[in-house]
Amino acid sequence: MMKKVILALATTLVIGTGTTVFANPNTFFSGSAGKQLTEKFQQLTRNNIWEQKEKVDLKFNTYHPQGMTKVGDLYYMSSVEILEKPVKYDQPKDGYDRTPGKGVGHLFLFNKEGKLLKDIKLGEGDVYHPGGIAFDGKSIWVPVAEYRPNSKSIIYKVNPETMESQEVFRTNDHIGGILRDGKEGTLKAVSWGSRTFYEFNEKGKVLRKTSNPSHFIDYQDCENAGKNNIICSGITELPQPAPSTAKYELGGLALLDMKTMDMVHELPIPLFSPNGHVVTRNPVYLENTTQGIKMYAVPDDDQSSMLIYETNISKK
C-alpha cells in the first residue's frame, strides 16, 4: 500500500472523468518516499491515534470487497459477487473441505467521489474469488482463486489505463494476495489465510515456498513498501465467552521483509466501520504523508464506504 507514492517522472492519463498519474516504473521503488514510509511504519504502536478524515460512499454495489490499490486519484478494487456460498462437507472430498459455490470476480475502477468508472469480470468456472491486489508501476496484479483452501488460482495482470486483463499463469493453490517485486521481477504471494508464502517467476514456477511464522492475523491485502519491504493488512476472528456465538474481529498491519518474508513490525488497528467490522477486514491502502501515514479502507460489503484515516507519527 506504500509503493503508490507519485514521483516526479510521470505521464498523465485521462480515464473517463478522472485523471491519474503513473510513476515511471524504473523509479517507482526507489527514492526516499518508500524509505520514509517504512521508517514511519516502524514507529507505529497501538497507541497511535487514527483520525477519520473522510468517508466516501461508493455509488455502486461493491459485493464483498477484497483488495485495493490507488494510482493517482483513481482507485482499483477487487471483489467477489457470491451467487451461492460454499458449503462445508462432513468429510473432505477429493482433497476439498467444501463445495466450490458459485460467483463472479470483479475488478472495479472508481474515482475519489465514489463513482464507478469501469467494472471488469475476472476468473472462470469455479475460479471466481479475487484476492489482494497490487500495482507495480505498470500493471495491476490480481489473483483469482476458488473460494476454498488448497484449490486453484489464475493470476492476471491488468492494464490500468485500458482495464484489459491478461492471464499470466495458473497454480495449484488458493492465492489470496499477490504483488510484484519491482527490483527482482518475481511475484510474492500468500495462500488462503496467508498460512503459506510463495515466490513465483512470471511463468508461474514456484521459486520458494515457506510457512508463515506469524499467527497474529491472516493477511488479506499486501503492497510494496520501499525497495525491500512489503506491508500487509488483515484480520483474525476470535471467539467470545459462552454463551455468545459472536466473534471478535482483530485487525492489524504488518511490515515484512520482502526477501525472507519475516515479520519486521506489526500492530493491531482498533478501528471499526459503521457496520461493526474492523477496518483492515479486506481492502486497505496506505500512503505516506508529510506528518505521518494515511490509510484507506473498505471494510463493509455491498453498499460500502471508503473510510480514510490519518495518524501523525509525532503524536502517540
Describe this structure in words.
- It contains one helix and 25 strands.
- With 316 residues, the protein is mainly beta.
List key phrases describing it.
Neuraminidase; 316 residues; four-stranded antiparallel sheet; globular; mainly beta; disordered N terminus; five-stranded antiparallel sheet
Topology:
Blueprint: E1 10-15, E2 18-23, H1 32-41, E3 51-57, E4 64-71, E5 74-84, E6 88-93, E7 96-98, E8 102-111, E9 116-122, E10 127-130, E11 134-135, E12 140-146, E13 153-158, E14 165-171, E15 175-180, E16 187-191, E17 196-200, E18 206-211, E19 218-225, E20 229-239, E21 247-257, E22 263-268, E23 284-288, E24 292-297, E25 305-312
Antiparallel strand pairs: 1-2, 3-25, 4-5, 5-8, 6-7, 8-9, 10-12, 11-12, 12-13, 13-14, 15-16, 16-17, 17-18, 19-20, 20-21, 21-22, 23-24, 24-25
The biggest sheet, with number of strands, parallel, antiparallel or mixed sense and barrel status, is: 5 strands, antiparallel
How far apart are the termini? 22 Å
Query: Are there runs of 5+ residues with pLDDT below 50, and where?
Result: 1-30
Gyration radius, in Å: 18 Å
What fraction of the residues are assigned to beta strands by DSSP?
over 45%
Tally of helical segments: 1
Write down how many β-strands occur, each being a DSSP E stretch of 2 or more residues: 25
